[in-house]
Amino acid sequence: IDKSIVIIGLDDTIIDYSNIEDPNINVYPSYNGMIVKLTNIDIFRSEESNIVNETRLIDLDHTADSLFVTFDNINLDLGFTIGGIWIDDNRVVLNINNSSLTKCSGVGGDGGAISSWGGTINIDNSSFDNNISNSGGAILKSQGSLNISNCSFTNNSHTLAQEGGAILIRTEATAYINNSEFSNNYSPNNG
Predict the structure, then answer these.
(1) Contact yes or no for 119/95 (Cβ under 8 A)
(2) Strand-pair partners of 14
(3) Backbone angles phi, psi at 28, to 5 degrees
(4) What are φ and ψ of residue 186, in 5° steps?
(5) For the residues of 46-76, what is the DSSP string, one character each?
(6) Nearest to 82 by CA among 19, 29, 124
(7) Which comes out higher in pLDDT, residue 134 or 71?
(8) Euclidean distance between CA atoms 76 and 78, whole angstroms
(9) Where are the alpha helices (DSSP H) in the chain?
(10) Nearest 5 degrees, angle CA 40-CA 106-CA 36?
(11) Minimum mean pLDDT among 90-94, 96-100, 140-144, 184-188: which range?
């Protein structure tokens, strides 16, 4: 995607990535202030998918200009076959509202649902369930800011002797977490 786009799903809009070998959605802005918004969509990948790779579904990487991405009422269930969202630039602003990120697998990487190495992430009224990665089971935030309100984190974990069963915030990042619930997240080490 290299232009601003708004995609609004109608009743029960489902995108099934189960049999797509390289399912990446790459977002590279072609101009300053580009906007991408997805609303009312279920994105699904079957646990029985015979295609498993160590990549991310949505790649917000190496942006030349500012990029504003909003997910509103998105249900992301990746069946432990692929990671969720990758951010590697400080000019990205990601807003997630009224959404669920489930069974995202960052194994081979960090942050099962969200792996962020820059930018600003705002999450409201959303759930993170059964995500897994090397560190930061649901979210890894290294650099930039993370703002979480009214969210739940349940049964997230990481696989290595790292940290952050649900969330790992590195020292280069700032995080504000308000009115959110954490239950049954697992870390064999810290957090």
Answers:
(1) no
(2) 42
(3) -125, 110
(4) -125, 135
(5) -TT-S---SSEEEEEES-SS-EEEEEEEEEE
(6) 19
(7) 71
(8) 6
(9) none
(10) 35
(11) 184-188
Residue 131 CB burial class (10 angstroms; 0-12, 13-18, ≥19): buried
CA distance 25 to 33: 19
Average pLDDT over residues 139-155: 95
Q: Looking up tokens 């969330």, which residue turns up? A: 167
Cα(142)–Cα(64) distance, rounded to whole angstroms?
20
Residue 1, token pair as written in the block: 């995607």
pLDDT tens for 14-41 read 777 767 666 677 776 667 788 889 899 8
Q: What is the pTM of this model?
A: 0.90
Render pLDDT for 78-127 as a digit per residue (tens, 0 to 9). 877 778 888 888 889 999 999 999 988 875 678 889 989 899 999 999 99
